[in-house]
Every structure is written in C-alpha cells, then in structure tokens.
Prior knowledge:
Elements: E1 10-17, H1 25-35, E2 38-46, H2 58-71, E3 75-78, H3 84-94, E4 97-99, H4 101-112, H5 116-131, H6 157-192, E5 197-202, H7 208-216, E6 233-239, E7 242-248, H8 258-263, H9 269-273, E8 276-282, H10 288-301, E9 309-314, H11 316-319, E10 324-327, E11 333-337, H12 346-358, E12 361-368, H13 373-382, E13 384-390, E14 396-403, H14 407-411, E15 415-420
Parallel strand pairs: 1-2, 1-3, 3-4, 5-7, 5-8, 8-9, 9-11
Antiparallel strand pairs: 6-7, 10-11, 12-14, 12-15, 13-14
Amino acid sequence: MFERPGAGEHAVLVHIATTFDAEDLAELEALAQTAGAQPVAVVQGSRRQPDPRFFIGKGKLEELSRAVAEYQAELVLFNHALSPSQERNLEKALGVRVVDRTGLILDIFAQRARSYEGKLQVELAQLRHMATRLVRGWTHLERQKGGIGLRGPGETQLETDRRLIGQRIRQIQQRLRKVEKQREQSRSARKKAELPTVALVGYTNAGKSTLFNALTTAHVYAADQLFATLDSTLRRIQLEWGNIILADTVGFIRHLPHELVAAFRSTLQETCEAEVILHVIDASAPQRQANIEAVYSVLGELGVERERVIEVYNKTDRIGRTPRLERDSEGRPRRVWLSARTGEGFDLLWEALVEVLADDRVHAEVHLSPREGGLRARLFSLGRVLKDEVDEQGGWNMEVELPARYRGVLEAIDGYHCRSERVH
C-alpha cells in the first residue's frame, strides 16, 4: 500500500512544452528556489497534449525515475497544473512527493503571508486546493473509523476529512468577511476625505516594492526574488494639489492559480477601486511582453479597465534607456520609463499622476426625487458630497464630486448638471 513520502528539499524539475502550455523553465527554477527547494536536475520534453494518466509519456516517466534515483531527490516539481489522479499516479510510480505549479505557488504564499488577513487567504486557497486532492496518496483516508463505539458502517476517514475541511473553509470565509467589512469602511472614509487611491500592480519581481519604498520612504521588504512581499500596504503621499493613498499589492504571475485570485479578491479590491493603476514592468526582463499580458489577464478577471492604467517601465538603468514620459493620441500620460533604484524619472511619474488625477474627477449638481433615496446613498458611497439640501417636495439638491469613471451614474440622473470635468 502506497504511503505518502515525507518532505524533501532536493528537487527534480519537469517542464513539458505542449500546445496548451508555454511556461518558462527559468521561472520554474526561480519558484523552486523561492520555496526553499534545491533543483538538482531538469527533465524536459514536448507533447501535443498531456497524457491523461501521468501527464508525461512512459519514456519521460522512466527518464524522470532515473533522475530521481541518480540525484536521490525527495521531490518532483512540475511546471504545469496536474489533476489529482495524475499526481497520485506519479507519486506511486516515483515513490517521492510530486507538486504541481499551483501547489508550489501556494507553498510560497504560505511562507510569505505575514498579516492576519494574508494568512487566512492563503489557508483558504490551500484548503480549496487540498479538497480536490484527498484521493491522492492518502490511502489511510479511505479506511473507516475504528475503536469502541465507532465500529460498523460509519463514515470513512476520507469523508471525515472532507467534512472538516468544509467546516474550516466556512470559518475562514466568515472571518474574511469581517476583515473585508473593515477594509470597506476604510475605503469609504478615504472617499469622504477625498483621498484618491493609486494602486501598484505588476509581475512578481518587477520592482513594485522598491518603487513603493522610494515613493513613500516606507520600509516594505523588497528583494530580488519572486513574491518577496505578499500583504498589501497602504501609505499616504502629499502631492501639490492634495493627498493620495498609494497601495502596494501582491505580484502577479503567469497562470496565477484561480484559488489565489479568488482568495485574494478582497485584498485586490484596492486595485479595483483605485482611480489610477500603476502597472510596474521590468523593462529588462527577457519575457517582458508575456509578463505584461499575464498582468492584464489577472486585471481582466478583476474587471479593471485598461483606461485607468499607466505603465511604468522600471529598471531603465539596466538597459541604458533614458527616462521619459509617453502619451497617447489624446495627450494623456500612458507610459513612464524610470529606475526605482536610482530615482531617475520620478519627476515624470509625479507629473503623470498629478495630471491624470486632476483630470479624472467630475464636479456636478444633481436633483433627486424622494423616490431616489437609494441613488442618494450610492452617491455618498462613490465620491464626495459637497452639498445635500432637502427641497420642498422632499427631494434633494446635491453637489457632488466623483471619479470620472462614475460619470455614467450622474448622466443617468434627470436633474444632472456638470459644473466641471476637471477638478484641481
């Protein structure tokens, strides 16, 4: 009977190029090292489509088995998402632990989480992932309970574990809902205080935290490794026309596990609500374009429009490029080239932020009927209410200031009058 092997550090990496997968082997090596594993060998190959039983073919399985034996590896890391049955079959054939790309990233996130919310989010993602894998090498889970008072049909250990995981998932979700309410209260307070949010997003190791520290004089941990920081951080910055909130978020990666996107949705809500999103890009990365598309893919899942994004090409000092500000056909800032390490180009970034934020708010007057109390409450939640007077019919005459992306809400109101499209 196969029993699941213990933990190990020496790992054999497996990268199979298929029509469905085009992962970068160098990134797998970086992920493995970030997780604390020591890569000792690499098995590469190509297939038109994955084998349903082992993902790899019999020939590659034999090659992988020889590599595990030769290097005395305790772990095999696949640069692909494996099905539960594929993981079980591979572990039985190799006699060592097998971890797919999703499991590897989850392990890194578990190491990096520091805040209460971050730890809960990672545990939730791990439990959801584990729930689909209880049928792998855990042979004891299929045995029924024994002992006095527990003999007989009863429920199997596998069913017990599924039930316990389900209970724990519900507990974490309840706790996260409380934390999310606190975040929402903080966001509402910032809106009422007219504090627009600028969110930093980007591919992991693009230099987000380094740029965040340079802009805010904060001391967020930054290192030349994947997922150096996981928990989001907020800081207030003084611009020439007022204060803003700068938010640093978790780095993205190609094929970021859906479990993590779902678990971190509340944290990433800072990105969804931000007036401006700074997409930090490693200008020196060989896979720069693929990394850019990976970030936009996650932003698309979150419902973020590209119109709110300013691309920040970082690490210009590595490629010998001169800092510059690029605009689109309408003259709006779209790209800033700079170096977070040297500070060159920061003046261009500040120029772009001041211009976009000042041009991204609508000042309007509206009249609401007594039946539109819900819309009045929404205006309070979306922006800043400068005047709120009750008229003789029980309606409201309001003067509001909202982010430009909510202009459609105002234009749908019959008593709408735009006082200014640009607020200084």
